[in-house]
Amino acid sequence: MNGAALYRCVESALNGSDVDSRIITPFKDTYLTASSGVILNPEFPAMVVYATTIDEISPLVKCGLATGFHVTPRSGGHHFENWSALNGTLVVDISHINYVSVSSDLSTATVGAGARLGAVYSILGQYGRTWIAGICPSVGIGGYFTCGGYNMQMRAFGMAADWVASAKVVLATGEMVTVSPTSHPDLWFAMRGGGIFAFTVEATLKTAILPRSAMLYMEFNGKATRVESTQKYLDWAPKQDPLFNSQLNLWNNRTMVLGWYVGKTVAELTAIVRTSGLMDIPGAVVKISGNCSTENSRNFWLYTQQTCTDDATAHAAFDTWFNVIPDDILPPMNATAYSFNDVPAIPNETQANLFPRMALINKTYFTIKSSPLSEADIAYIVEKSGELPDEAMFWTEMTSFNISAPATTSAFPWQEEATALFRFQVGKTGNATLDAIGKAFMSDLDSYLIPRIGNATYAGYIDAHISTNPWTSYYGSNVCKLVSIKKRYDPTSFFSNPFTIPPTAPPGVTC
Fold first, then answer.
1. Is the torsion defined by CA of 67, 70, 72, 73 positive or negative?
2. What is the pLDDT of residue 290?
3. Strand 23-24 relative to strand 47-50: parallel, antiparallel, unpaired?
4. Which stretches of the chain score pLDDT less than 50?
């Protein structure tokens, strides 16, 4: 590999008068910021280059090929191991390829793959439309739907991967092609939910109109009700009308439930909540709102609202997190900031807050229909987490699945089987004693859960220390099909990370 040759090639691949400022090498004071993701796991790429048009991507990929550097695509930087800035690679950041162009009939939107969910929602909202997708405004769509794209409308409407109509991708040869159900249909299947097979640079999204809805906020303060609230929630939420999507948030000293009943009224939401038993828990705080706009509803998941407001007030709150700029992540502590041409999605409205970076340990599991957790198992999880000190920063999100939407056409493997998704995290604090406590808890939790619920997990929350086979855990029974597609389109694993599908059967799998 030749770093000087790579720099010269990248210079020639970029357009405009700001070329040098868009090339970040380890010798620049902005390198730490450019090489860091939202999750603070150190990686040391050979170079980070910021593309601004899709026409720059093919030449940049060819630069990597010509000089011996693998290319790592990055759209939002939310990879949970920061593998979107892999050691020794040429990282091509497309956060500034973020246009959102709505079709004349409003049924689709052509979107640069570096656009963040916040920008997509903000711009589509001006047309009375939205996209069926996730809750985090800072996530880039290019990486998001390669994992499947779970969301808070999915029980009725499905994964975000099934709300993509087509995409433009750059192959490992440097060739740009369009993929869709009729063009490269095998690649179309694989790249939605199966990980990295090519470099996605543009997507055509199917837009949606979500009706006014009813929203639920419930809070249970103190440790005494954590077991009861968690058990009642998990027994109830996945069994409800598929238009009701919800999540329980569990801390070491309290719980919270959020719910979105799409298109329904306060009376209809109240009726199903009464069947949960949650309202009968002593000290329960229950807030049910109706006639909520989609912006009102999305705000709940950012904790900016507990009840719905008038639309203007909700929109002002929505802007504070969703009207994002391209470089919308805070720089790491004591690092030099890096940004350029940072215009909000809606330029004449309030710019969103910059998204914080986090250092954490993460473990994620699907509960599946054939292996439900017992009440004793749930009690064990809740009680053990309650023993952690506040400073360990424990948090779990438990999201109801049991999806009733039509079968996915993507490679996401768990739609038919998953009943809930559990994501556990503890902070990396820098205090050796505290971090050892958090790490031991996560290890013990993993050892307890895997024999009881199996290995199914979500590829959007990659765990470098996963204790099960990563390929079958993330991609299920699709692994061998995906291997054959990888062999066809990327036989040298030019686009890869430690857990991407390889072009031959991965360890522990026979194809």
1. positive
2. 98
3. antiparallel
4. none
| DSSP output for 205-219 | EEPB-PPPEEEEEEE
- What pLDDT, on a 0 to 100 scale, did the predictor assign at position 1? 76
- HSE toward the beta carbon, residue 25, CA cutoff 13 A: 10
Quick one: CA dihedral 97, 120, 85, 489, positive or negative?
negative
What does residue 221 show for φ and ψ, rounded to 5 degrees? -90, 140
Residue whose C-alpha is closest to residue 69's, from 124, 122, 1? 1
In which residue are the tokens 């062999």 written? 487
Residues belonging to the chain: 511
Residue identified by tokens 């994992």 is: 147
Tokens matching residue 496: 């890869």
User: Between the CA of residue 149 and those of 40, 133, 160, 193, 273, what are the distances in Å?
Assistant: 22, 6, 5, 8, 27
Token pair for residue 57? 């991507």
Which one, of 161, 461, 123, 110, lies nearest residue 322 by Cα?
123
Q: How far is CA 165 from the centre of its chain?
A: 19
Cβ atoms within 10 A of the Cβ of 125, count? 19
Q: Under a CB-based contact definition with an 8 Å cutoff, are residues 35 and 85 in contact?
A: yes
Q: Which residue has the tokens 């919800």?
A: 246
Q: Which residue's entry shows tokens 């290319």? A: 71
* Residue 446, pLDDT score: 97
User: Is residue 260 helix, strand or coil?
Assistant: strand
In angstroms, the CA 411 to CA 395 distance is 29
Task: Give the global pTM.
Answer: 0.97
Residue 153 backbone zone (phi > 0: left; psi -120 to 50: alpha; other: beta): alpha
pLDDT of residue 2: 83
Please tell me the distance from the alpha carbon of residue 164 to that of residue 177, in angstroms, as a whole number: 16
Instruction: Give Cα separations from 452 to 253, 287, 370, 378, 463 (angstroms).
Output: 25, 35, 10, 11, 19
pLDDT of residue 32: 97
Do the beta carbons of residue 462 and residue 361 sit within 8 Å? no
d(CA 257, CA 260): 10
CA–CA distance, 480 with 473 (Å, rounded to integer) = 13
8-state DSSP, 355:
B
Pairing of strands 395-400, 418-427: antiparallel
What is the dihedral sign for C-alpha 343, 346, 348, 354?
A: negative
Residue listed under structure tokens 């004693």:
433
Pairwise CA distance, residues 315 & 322, whole Å: 10
pLDDT for the residue 353: 97
